[in-house]
Amino acid sequence: MAASFKAILALSMLISPCLSSAAQSCSSYTFSSNKVFSSCTELPHLGASLYYNHTAPTDTISIAFKAPQTSTGWVAWGLNPAGTKMVGSQAIVAFFHSNGSMVAYPTQLDSYAPSMAPGAPSFPVSDLSTEYVNKEMIIFATLGLVGGGSKFSHVWQEGSTVLNDVPKAHSTTGENIQSLGTIDFQ
Ligand SMILES: *[C@@H]1O[C@H](CO)[C@@H](O)[C@H](O)[C@H]1NC(C)=O
Ligand SMILES: *[C@@H]1O[C@H](CO)[C@@H](O)[C@H](O)[C@H]1NC(C)=O
Q1: Which range of residues forms the domain containing residue 140?
Q2: Which of 38, 103, 113, 123 is spaced 20 to 30 Å from 141 by Cα?
Q3: Which amino acid residue places its CA nearest to atom 1 of ligand 1?
């Protein structure tokens, strides 16, 4: 009896690190560029994750947004300083340009049918880059939050199609209309 209890205990000690790393897979992920972030959160929809560092003295955050995608689709993440949904969001979109390079740029989601053209965001964005690793698109950026505190509404999204280097509309059902929330970068 005691022996089998010890065996079970040993077995559960072997298993539990695997379970906890699955539950926290965002923190176990290693970026190919060796970038590290102090915090990460698995977003509740579209398999996406957000990694961030908040530098309080300069009120900036460095982020990585990561989501599964095929090489012909697009991903986007943004903050909405003016509301809680898509419209008004200052987003960063990433996809494969027709020239074969991945591109990422800020774009303003000013309606439910935004142009998706590059546009200056309402807060500073720097150090923007993107990469495609293991069928996931990753956006890196540094945002100046210009006195906005640490808590924000954010939105994230993915779509299957890019036409003439313009991301086309995402699905308007299921997880694609649930992918929004609040984030506290403190
Ligand atoms: C995030 O902060 C940690 C700890 O200060 C630092 O080691 C790391 O390089 C920072 N990452 C980025 C992407 O700025
Ligand atoms: C592809 O186009 C993008 C956007 O114009 C540009 O930034 C990038 O340098 C181009 N890449 C190549 C390999 O031409």
Answers
A1: 37-184
A2: 113
A3: 37
